[in-house]
Specification:
By secondary structure, the protein is mainly α. Helix content is 81%, strand content 0%. The two termini are 34 Å apart.
């Protein structure tokens, strides 16, 4: 079987996404106050980029590929609901600031849920690459902007929960590799079963909408000071504006 250029895009993007798990090591050199100061603006920017990726890139392409808009929005709703069900089942949220005081067993839950989330993300982004490489890059960038603050939080939770720093880093990396696994699964499945990737784009858009609106935004709208609220609002709008600007090219 001859591998085409799309395979190598999926492989490379999956490896890069997995490497983002190593960003948690930054927490070792940052003061806690500094980390908290930059973390929430990153979360806000990630929320805007995820929403922008879904609204300005993924849904428009799905609507252009599928004749009837009904199935597109139904599939996007399915993507939204699947991630809701996943979080309800795992009793866990991707931004873990409220889990910092939990005992060590919760750290295993975080790793399992993070690995499953990354696998589904790999399926969604890999499906976008199968349709259009440029759109796949946009989807990857939006997902990566979400992963950076999440992985910072993950690493901090594991260390706080009693893990050795080296072990926390390696296991976080292993959970990140499931993104690559998801991308490869959807690639080879599409060859064998002729998967309609147009619906994967709509499904992935629903995933992005859920993470941005339900997972990330609640983390940034609880500040008591006007300055912090304005900063987070500006960061979210910046994420939206970036993805909208990229959609115009």
């Amino acid at each position: 079987m001859e591998l085409d250029h799309t395979f190598f895009w999926i492989l490379g993007s999956g490896l890069l996404m997995s490497a983002i798990a190593l960003v948690g090591s930054v927490t070792l050199v940052l003061r806690e106050q500094t980390l908290q100061r930059i973390l929430l603006p990153l979360v806000a920017f990630a929320a805007g980029s995820l929403l922008g990726g879904a609204l300005f890139h993924m849904l428009p392409l799905a609507l252009a590929q599928i004749e009837s808009p009904g199935p597109v929005f139904l599939t996007a709703a399915a993507g939204f609901v699947v991630f809701l069900a996943l979080e309800q089942f795992m009793h866990w949220h991707h931004c873990h600031r409220d889990l910092m005081d939990h005992v060590e067993p919760s750290t295993y839950l975080i790793l399992i849920a993070d690995g499953l989330h990354n696998f589904l993300g790999g399926l969604a982004v890999g499906g976008v690459f199968l349709v259009d490489v440029q759109l796949g890059i946009m989807a990857w960038l939006a997902a990566a902007m979400h992963e950076v603050p999440q992985e910072l939080g993950d690493f901090g939770v594991l260390v706080h929960g009693g893990w050795k720093k080296a072990s926390a880093l390696w296991f976080n990396l292993i959970s990140g590799l499931t993104f690559l696994l998801g991308g490869l699964v959807v690639y080879f499945a599409s060859i064998r079963f002729q998967i309609n990737t147009d619906y994967l784009i709509a499904f992935g858009a629903g995933n992005f909408l859920y993470i941005g609106a339900s997972d990330l935004i609640p983390q940034i709208n609880k500040e008591e000071t006007l300055a912090n609220n304005l900063l987070h609002f500006a960061a979210l709008v910046a994420g939206l504006a970036l993805l909208y600007g990229l959609s115009r090219f």
